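Notes from the 1:1 (GR / supervisor)

We went over the backlog. Supervisor wanted to see one worked example end to end before approving the batch request, so GR pasted a single chain during the call. The sequence is below; no edits were made to it. Supervisor asked that the structure be written out right there so they could see what the output format looks like.
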Amino acid sequence: MSDKEDKLKGKTNEAIGKGKQGVGEATDNEDLKAEGDLQETKGKAQGVKGEAKEKIKKGVDNA
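Structure output shown during the call:
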C-alpha cells in the first residue's frame, strides 16, 4: 500500500470512528462509542504510517 493510500484510509477510519462515537453518544451506546474510539485510533495510526512512508521515500529519492 502506498503512503497516499495509507493516509487516505487513515482519514477515512478517523471520520467513521468519530461518526460512530457521535451516534454512540446520542444513543447512549457505550459499545458503539468504544468501537468508534478504536477505529479513530486505528485511522490515526494509519495516517502516521503513511507519513513515515512518505518521509522515507523522500529521503531515498534525495540520496
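Supervisor's comment: Residues 30-62 form the longest helix (33 residues).
Batch request approved.
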